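Internal ticket - ligand job 149, FE2/S2 (inorganic) cluster:
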Amino acid sequence: MAVKDTTAPRIRARLLAALYLAQEQYGWLSPQAIERVASRLELSPGQVYTTASFYTMFKLEPRGKYLVQVCEGLSCYLAGGAEPILEHIARRLDIQPGETTPDGRFTLEVVQCLAACGTAPALRINDELYENMTFESIDALLERLRSAA
Ligand code: FES
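stdout (structure tokens):
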């Protein structure tokens, strides 16, 4: 079998779409998910892993049901967010950035900008963007997610 060039636009597009779908289905890209994508697209697992590890949107380790991404970019910082919000959420969830709650519900991450600078401070949970956040709105949001099925 000839080695496919994963930098070719069509192959790259199909690979990214397949990785996105696999992550949607399994929550993260396990070695088994990487192998499955590789097999489907007739690529080597190494090629798939190299691409997946390049993009921060792909998760190569298990994560919580809710991936909480707190922006610590300049606009969020100037709007009173960033570190204070990160510390608030870390205290509420009792985890540090990069960690997952023991019940597997929340993973906390820091990101640099969510492209919501005009409505900072912002955070994202899974694919949902939350803007103009306050400690109160964060508490209400976390409580809603805690009690969600
Ligand atoms: S700096 Fe936070 S959304 Fe841009």
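Auto-summary: Residues 71, 73-76, 113-114, 116-117, 120, 122 surround FE2/S2 (inorganic) cluster (CB under 6 Å). The two ends are 46 Å apart (CA to CA).
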